[in-house]
Amino acid sequence: MIATHNRLNGKIRVSLDAGAVPSQPTGAGRYVLSIANALSCRDDVDLVLLCRKGDSKRWEEIAPDAAVREVFPRARPVRLAWEQIRLGRMLAALDVDVHHGPHYTMPSRATVPVVVTVHDLTFVENPQWHQPMKVAFFRRAIERAARDAAGIVCVSDRTASSLKEHFSVKCPVVVAPHGIDGSIFTPREPSAGYDDEVLRELGISRSYILFLGTLEPRKSVPALVRAFDAVSKKYPDLDLVIAGRTGWDRNAVMGSLGSSVDPSRIKLTGYVSDGQLPAMLRKASLCAYPALEEGFGLPVLEALACGTPLVTTSKVPAAELAGGAAWIVDGESGGDMSQAEYASRLASTMCSVLGDDDEMESRRRIGLDSAQTWTWQRSAGMHMEAYRLALEAAGGTGGNARSRNRRDQHG
Q: What is the mean pLDDT of the chain?
C-alpha cells in the first residue's frame, strides 16, 4: 500500500538525487536534468528534487512542478558522506514512497525502497579507462545496488546483461533508454541565421567533422584524430571540431593533436551548451562518435534527431536504436585491433559517407524517423515502471508506511 497521501491522489511520491549534477553537465548529468523535467510533467508522480545548497533556482526552472529541497553539501567528498550518513533517515521526513539514486549510489539505512540507475559496467570490465579511486568506489556502489536496491534502472540492454553477468542481482531490473528533446534537437534552426551565429561565436568558419563528448580514454579521440589525418588528405577543405570538456587522462588526446598531420585543422571548443549543440550538429558534414564502450551514447540520438550523418561503433548501444541510419565501425576491443587499424577503418567509413550524397540522404530520413520514437517522456514512463516494481519488491508498501507501522508496534 502506497503512503496515504499518495494513495488518495493516485500518485507515487519520488525523491530524486540531483546533488551531483555540475553547472556544466555532460552524460549522466544531462540524463538527470532530462529525466527530472520529464517526470515533473507526469500526472502519476509527485517529484521531490534533492539538490545542493544554493542550487534550487536551476532545478525550479528545469522541473517547475517538482518540490525542490536544498539538502546536499556543495563539496563532493562531504556530499558523498552526507548521502550515506544523513539522507537515508531524511527520506522518512520527506514522506516519499521511493527514492531514486540516478548515478550508481544509494543511501545507507533508507526508510523507503531505493531505485538506482546503473549506466555502464566499465568500472568492472575496463577499469583502465577510469581513475583508480573511482574504480574502487563505483565497483562497491554497483555491488551494493545489486544486493540492496529495490529496483535498478539500466540505460541499455547491454548494461543490464553486463550487470547480471558480474553481480548477483536481487531486485527487478528495468531497461530505460535515454531520449531526446525534439523541441531542441531538430533539423530546423529556431530562427534564420541562428546556426551560423553559433559557429561564429565558436570560431568555426569551415566545413567540419564533429565529435561531441568528454575527452577521456574510452571516447577514442586519438584514433579519431589519426583517422582525420587520412580523411583530410582527400578533403582539404574539411576540419575536425572536437567539442567537450577535458576529462581524465588528457595526455593521450593532447599528444595525438600534437602529432597530427595538420594541427591547425583541428579545433577544440571546450564545453558547449545545450543551446549550441544542435546548431553544431546541424552544420556538421558528419558526426563521428568512435567510443570504445558506452552505457548508452546520447550524442548518437542527438545527431540523428538533427539530421546529421553519423559514424559510430558497434560498442555504442544507442546505435542499435538508429534503425540502420548510422554507419557502424567495429570498435577496438581488448587489444585485438591496433589503434592504427581502428583509425584506418574509421577513415575509410568517413570517406564513404562524405562521398555518397544519395546514401547520406536516405539514412538521414531513417535517422529522423527513428529519433522521434526515443523521447524523455518515453524514458520517464519506463522509470515509473521501475518505481512501481520497487514498491512491489519491497512488499507492496511505501517505506513511510512501514516506518510508521514499526513505530506503532514498538510504542
A: 90
Beta strand pairing call for 45-52 and 114-118: unpaired
Name the strand (E) or helix (H) holding 367: helix 357-372
Q: What is the DSSP secondary-structure string of 294-338? A: -S--HHHHHHHHTT--EEEETT-GGGGGSTT-SEEEPPP-TTSS-
Phi and psi angles of residue 8, each rounded to the nearest 5 degrees, phi first: -70, -35
The per-residue pLDDT for range 289-326, each reduced to its tens digit, is: 999 999 999 999 999 999 999 999 988 999 888 889 99
Cell, residue 232:
583530410
Which DSSP category does 72 fall into? Answer: E
Domains 4-179+375-409 and 194-372 share a fold: yes
Give the separation between CA 234 and CA 231, rounded to whole angstroms.
5
Distances (CA, A) of 274 to 25, 56, 151, 352: 10, 20, 31, 30
CATH for 194-372 (3.40.50.2000, 3.40.50.720, 3.20.20.70, 3.40.50.300):
3.40.50.2000
The residue among 133, 92, 140 whose CA lies nearest residue 116 is 140
Whether the CB-CB separation of 78 and 383 falls below 8 Å is answered with no
Domain boundaries, the chain: 4-179+375-409, 194-372
Q: Which three cell numbers stand for residue 203?
A: 570560431
Q: Which fold has domain 4-179+375-409?
A: Rossmann fold (3.40.50)
First-to-final CA distance of the chain: 22
